[in-house]
């Protein structure tokens, strides 16, 4: 069965500092990975997906199949980045349901 | 813009009550989902519906059932609420040909 691990419950950084939110996965097939974000009092929304290889709000994430990781990075954190971040994996066949990690709360201090 | 709405933001019920949580989407999405969100556990899939009248158990279906009589509406039912079902419940929908799920605002259910 697939599994997504986010080892940090809370990550606190100062504004302007680099950010790395860790995500590791286990899956027997070819994974498709996502980062979802939930800002305070807002609904959960897609931030980025590994297939797109895009940068959203300055965030990037690279899939490393050797290390089975999909860490989320941003070179210079902003206060508005404070939110709950979830890494998720989608099954490559069947119901294609998302499996979420436990989430990491990012706090960016001024 | 996809809009997923949930019938209540906050709900307080008593142990043993039957509870209905409603979710409506306005984008003709085939797939709909119910998750519960708990601190330290993330989101866990309760039930999933491929299309009208089609449903499949997720990872934690015990104590829950669902109904999908119309494409736009997906209901989560707690037949006999228990205190361990106190949680935030999130509904999501997705076009079957895509992977992006759109989430509702959530219903915070407290069972006393």
Structure summary:
Chain A is 0% helix and 44% strand. With 110 residues, chain A is mainly β.
Q: What characteristics describe this protein?
A:
heterodimer, A: 110 residues, mainly beta, three-stranded antiparallel sheet, B: 112 residues, seven-stranded mixed sheet, four-stranded antiparallel sheet, 11 strands
Distance, first to last CA of chain B? 37 Å
Which of globular, elongated, flat, extended, rod-shaped describes the shape of chain B?
globular
* Helix count, DSSP H or I runs of 4 or more residues of chain B: 0
Radius of gyration of chain A: 13 Å
Structural class of chain B: mainly beta
Q: Major sheet of chain A, described briefly?
A: 6 strands, mixed
Could you tell me the mean pLDDT of chain B?
94
Largest sheet of chain B: 7 strands, mixed
Helix content of chain A: under 10%
Helix-residue proportion of chain B: under 10%
Oligomer description: heterodimer
Mean pLDDT of chain A: 92
Return the structural class of chain A: mainly beta
- Give the overall shape of chain A, derived from the CA principal axes: globular
- From N to C, what is the helix and strand string of chain B? EEEEEEEEEEE
Strand-residue proportion of chain A: 35-45%
Can you write the helix and strand succession of chain A as a string? EEEEEEEEEEE
Low-confidence stretches of chain A: none
The proportion of strand residues of chain B reads: over 45%
């Amino acid at each position: 069965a697939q599994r997504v691990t986010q080892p940090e419950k809370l990550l606190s950084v100062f504004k302007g500092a680099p950010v790395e939110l860790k995500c590791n996965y286990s899956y027997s097939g070819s994974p498709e990975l996502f980062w979802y974000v939930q800002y305070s009092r807002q609904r959960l929304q897609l931030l980025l997906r590994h297939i797109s290889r895009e940068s959203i709000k300055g965030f990037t994430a690279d899939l490393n199949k050797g290390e089975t990781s999909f860490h989320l990075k941003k070179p210079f954190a902003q206060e508005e980045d404070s939110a709950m971040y979830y890494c998720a994996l989608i099954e490559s066949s069947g119901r294609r349901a998302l499996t979420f990690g436990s989430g990491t709360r990012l706090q960016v201090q001024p | 813009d996809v809009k997923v709405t949930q019938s209540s933001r906050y709900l307080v019920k008593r142990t043993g009550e039957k509870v209905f949580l409603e979710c409506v989407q306005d984008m003709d999405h085939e797939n709909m989902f119910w998750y519960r969100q708990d601190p330290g556990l993330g989101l866990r899939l309760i039930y999933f519906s491929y299309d009208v009248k089609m449903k499949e158990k997720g990872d934690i279906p015990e104590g829950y059932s669902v109904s999908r009589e119309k494409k736009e509406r997906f209901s989560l039912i707690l037949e006999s609420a228990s205190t361990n079902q106190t949680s935030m419940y999130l509904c999501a929908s997705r076009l079957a040909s895509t992977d992006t799920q759109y989430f509702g605002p959530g219903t915070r259910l407290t069972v006393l």
